[in-house]
């Protein structure tokens, strides 16, 4: 899906939710949309400064918080990075395959895995409020290079 299509979709969802898709939020969204992997907040800040020289860390963190709340991005906890969700529009559990060599991240959506994980949590008396499962390894391309 093209960046413009993603931006238009995000803008529409924000309008439906009564949320403001400000120019800074859109710029951060666009930076994320052009990546295949996750990126840290300070790396995003450096890229954002190319068009917004006065941008500060708080600028990026506020944009990332907004994009997360809208369900547009996932936080990769193990690497403290952020990834655009190409399936946004509703909050959903995600399973992420993270290549430790090239940094590529593939997002999966397994209902079976989600249901089993929830079943196990309920058996323990646990209520899941947010779920992202991360697996680290090598992607097909990096594995083939070995």
UniProtKB/TrEMBL annotation:
Keywords, sorted A to Z: Cytoplasm, DNA-binding, Iron, Metal-binding, Repressor, Transcription, Transcription regulation, Zinc
CDD domains (UniProt xref): Fur_like (cd07153)
Pfam annotation, one family: FUR
Subcellular location: Cytoplasm
Superkingdom per UniProt: Bacteria
Similarity remark: Belongs to the Fur family.
Subunit architecture: Homodimer.
Name of the featured protein: Ferric uptake regulation protein
Organism ancestry: Bacteria, Pseudomonadati, Pseudomonadota, Gammaproteobacteria, Chromatiales
């Amino acid at each position: 899906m093209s960046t413009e299509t993603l931006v238009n979709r995000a803008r529409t969802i924000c309008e439906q939710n009564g949320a403001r898709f400000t120019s800074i939020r859109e710029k951060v969204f666009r930076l994320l949309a052009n990546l295949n992997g996750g990126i840290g907040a300070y790396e995003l800040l450096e890229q954002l400064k190319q068009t917004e020289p006065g941008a500060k860390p708080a600028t990026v963190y506020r944009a990332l918080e907004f994009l997360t709340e809208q369900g547009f991005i996932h936080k990769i906890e193990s690497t403290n990075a952020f990834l655009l969700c190409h399936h946004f529009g509703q909050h959903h559990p995600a399973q992420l395959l993270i290549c430790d060599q090239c940094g590529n991240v593939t997002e999966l959506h397994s209902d079976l895995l989600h249901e089993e994980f929830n079943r196990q949590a309920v058996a323990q008396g646990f209520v899941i409020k947010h779920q992202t499962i991360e697996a680290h390894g090598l992607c097909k391309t990096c594995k083939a290079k070995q």
